[in-house]
Records
---
Amino acid sequence: MERKSIDHKKLKRKPSGAAIIRPELTTTLFRALFEEWAETGYTRISLEHVATRAGAGKAAIYRRWPSKLEFAFDAIRNVEVMWAGFSEQETFQEDIRSYLRATIRVLRHPLARRVIADMVAERLRSSELSPLLDRIVSVRRQFGHQMLDRAIARNELDADLDRELALDYLVGPLYMSMINRGVSTTLADLEKHVVVIEAGIKACCHGR
């Protein structure tokens, strides 16, 4: 019996375009998710609408992520502005200024600021996004801890500093101003924040 030859090229051919996970489409889906999230809030996100914004089918989302939550986690993890640090300076006041500038870049981002505010609000209704929000807060506070360590080593702060209170104070005034009140921060405003926050943190000692 005649045996048919095997076309090895056909056996090794790549999957069709629909089955390929294209990085550029993943990036577009992330952007579409944030746009939808900023407009509707997390609870009301429609993955069908997200896919339409990205010019794709909903299958493109489920091929990558099994749920809206996993989609959101991965999207946040890929936003560099959320995790960006700040350059180390030579004095505590200069460190505060550098830290606040990095924070302002996050809070000025038109999508990031609305998504962050929604995550905080959503936490009051449900714990679903808590691990993600905790991760963001943890990374930002770790940068703050490093800054406090340097200030203590330079004898600019007392070693018995209440660190958690100090870190709350570090970002709290700026968040209240830019997110809660919706006020744009000028360079003059930044300098006022630096002076007030430095004085406030120096007062965060257990003995005071």
---
Amino acid sequence: MHQTRLIIETLKLELRKQQKTYKHVAEKLELSEASVKRLFAEESLSLNRLDNICELLQLEFSDLVSLMEENISFTTELSLAQENELVSDIKLLLMAHFLINGLRFSDITDNYTITETEGIQLLAKLDRMKIIELLPGNRVKMIISKNFQWIKHGPIQSFYKTVIQPEFLNSSFTLPGEFQVFTSGMLTRTSNTELIKKIKRLSKELNEMNTTDQSSELEQKFGTSLMIAMRPWEPDIFHQLRRVEPKKHF
């Protein structure tokens, strides 16, 4: 499954590089665009369809595998010390965050209180951490894998939970561009699994939109966060009214 995911991610990268869209893929595979999006989201492309997409990109399947192996060498996770370094230096964290999201160095120094000298020092740190490769002219090349993840329950995730999440939720969610919904139901394990798949698909779609929008001018873009959480759960105020402790467990 891990290899399949890497192949699909490499395919997406090549499509973007060659400015090919899902519409081009749909025409090649003689499918609807919606069907192609679903195949990519579910990572369920057959070998025959992979071959056809490679043909569209003028690549041999072996070329795609080679590109995938190059991506594997990218940074997939930071060390505990590196994550601690990020959360202990807000300017370093800010620089990493915006570079990962496609902003130019000049965009960051023009809009935030970071001097060019400070910025170059921050870039050098991120280069040592193998998040970026620092190029001449303060240009950067991202060298983190598409499968990059923060350490589970590590410093970054803890920082998010204690600092970012409460601030994000401290909103009425009624302003333009804001939305909030809370829905409950009684679901089977099968429905729960299906819903989680759809949530993951939505998260991937946001990441793809973020990549697509990197070519847009900064004035047209807004920092946007999406938070979705789901769990089998009963509010304590209801649980206290139960006659007996339920025997079923998820």
